[in-house]
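Long-time lurker. I teach an intro course on protein structure, and each term I like to show students one example going from raw sequence to a predicted 3D structure in token notation. This year I'd like something fresh instead of my usual example. Would anyone be willing to generate the tokens for the chain below so I can use it in lecture? Attribution to the forum is fine with me.
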Amino acid sequence: MTTAYDRYLKEILIDEPALRQRIIELGREISRDYADSPALMLICILKGGVMFLTDLMRQIEVPHEIDFLAVSSYGRGARESTGKVRIDMDLRGEVVGKDLLIVEDIIDSGYTLKFVMDVMQARHPNSVKLCTLLDKPSRRTIPIPIHYTGFQIEDKFVFGYGLDLDEKFRNLPFVGVVREEALISE
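-- Reply from a regular --
Happy to contribute to a lecture. Here you go:
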């Protein structure tokens, strides 16, 4: 049976069981590290971080709030960050005195998350840390402290499990590598 994503999928990079296991481990680490935090807030970077956030928050055993932030540095159909970051949707809640954990789907250049961390730090939280599902260190052009990493990956164009391919295929239960030849024929 052929699925809608078959023509774009080169290989499955991280399968569903591996994602599930690593998220359980991250939940344990975060629960341990924030055991004494009276005010943990998970801030999900939209849209890509949603699947990761919902699975991760179920594994965190300490009380926490969630909020959402939409930022963009990629245009629709763009394959690389422009380096110019803007906030498309800001938090609804106050962060003063809270322990913020920014939850992101993927970090490559670091520009977007550096911008987000600087903006959050200026709002006077107790702390700001970063949790990413995927880290592409070979693409880093700006240093950024990542406190929790699901997987380090090579410089591959990936989609699935929250990561989109032109706003599609976020629903896939795995992280796949894009067969870039399929994009050229479009």
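Some talking points for your students: The longest helix spans residues 16-33. Residues 99 and 127 are 5 Å apart (CA to CA).
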